[in-house]
Structure formats: C-alpha cells, structure tokens
Amino acid sequence: MTKTIYMEVIQMNEKMYEIMRDGRGFIAALDQSGGSSAKTLKNYGIDESEYSSEEEMFNLIHEMRKRVMTSKVFTNEHILGTILFEKTMMSEVNGKFTADYLWDEKGIVSFLKVDKGLAEEKNGVKLMKEIPNLNEEIEEASKKHVFGTKMRSVIYEANEE
C-alpha cells in the first residue's frame, strides 16, 4: 500500500471513529443472513416461487437492501452506521463496494457481522457459535473499508455459571 493511500485510510478511520464516538443516531441492521431471508422477501412481497436458488434469493435481498441504502431518507442525519452481512459487503451499490458507497455517498460507517449464529441456550445464555475464519474476514473487511465488526451472544437470565 502506498504511503498516500495508507494516510487516506488512517484519516478515514479517524473520521469514522469520531462519528461513532460523538455522533447521535442509530446503527441500521442490514446483516440478515440466509436463515430468515425467505420470510423477509415474502413480507416484502416476493414469493419463494420467484427464485430458485440461494444465490437468486441473496440477489433479491441485496436489491432490497440497495433500495433502502440509496433512499434519500437513508442519511447520516439519524443513521451513524450499518451492520452488513458478508455477501452485502462483497456486493456493490451504484458501482462501489457497499461500505464505500455508504461512506462516500452517505457518510455512514459500516460494520461487518462476523458471528455465525447462536448455540443452543445453556444456563440462561446463548453463546456465539465458533467463528472459524475470523482473521480472514477481518482482513477482507479492512480491504473493503469496513470500520468494525458486530457479534453477539444473548443473556436471558443472571447465572453464576
């Protein structure tokens, strides 16, 4: 990486950090993965008979997300950041990778969903499943100008175990 490009990346990350530290607003969740996408499309008016593969389903989901992201009301006035699914990060919006579009055109910071879902509940908690390629995902996210990551576990009740 040339020094000029490296300095631009550092400046971009500092500005993103300032937005996340000082900004007031929401983080929009655009990180829906395969498990519930068919239901989402159905709620959006697209029946399962209108696509025949997972790839077609994800393409339709991405088109739906693009409509949201390119909407004139999807702005950094109230939205500080977005959580992206890996396929969304690797896809383009108006000729740019998604995170670049969101940052360059909207001033919105991107995060990558890296968790692989939740394990079964045990002792009042659902822990994250193992993330086998975390380093590679973070490296790719960095190349795509994603600021950070999102992962989660769920605590349902207090438990000393």
Description:
By secondary structure, the chain is of the alpha/beta class. It has one domain (25-155): Alpha-Beta Barrel (TIM Barrel). Helix content is 44%, strand content 17%. It has 6 helices and 8 strands. It has helices at residues 3-22, 34-43, 54-70, 86-90, 98-106, 134-143; strands spanning 26-30, 79-84, 92-93, 96-97, 109-113, 125-126, 148-150, 154-155. The chain has a 4-stranded parallel sheet. A hairpin with a 2-residue loop joins strand 3 (92-93) and strand 4. Helix 2 (34-43) packs across helix 3. The chain is globular. It starts with a helix and ends in a 6-residue tail after the last strand. Mean pLDDT is 87; it is low at 1-7. Belongs to the class I fructose-bisphosphate aldolase family. Pathway: Carbohydrate degradation; glycolysis; D-glyceraldehyde 3-phosphate and glycerone phosphate from D-glucose: step 4/4.
**CATH homologous superfamily annotation:** Aldolase class I
The N- and C-terminal alpha carbons lie at a distance of 47 Å
Order of helices and strands: HEHHEHEEHEEHEE
Return the domain count: 1
Biggest β-sheet strands, sense, barrel: 4 strands, parallel
Percentage of residues in helical conformation: 40-55%
Q: Whole-number average pLDDT? A: 87
List how many beta strands DSSP finds. Answer: 8
Q: What's the number of helices?
A: 6
Radius of gyration: 17 Å
Beta-strand portion reads 15-25%
CATH structural class:
Alpha Beta
Structural class: alpha/beta
- Shape designation: globular
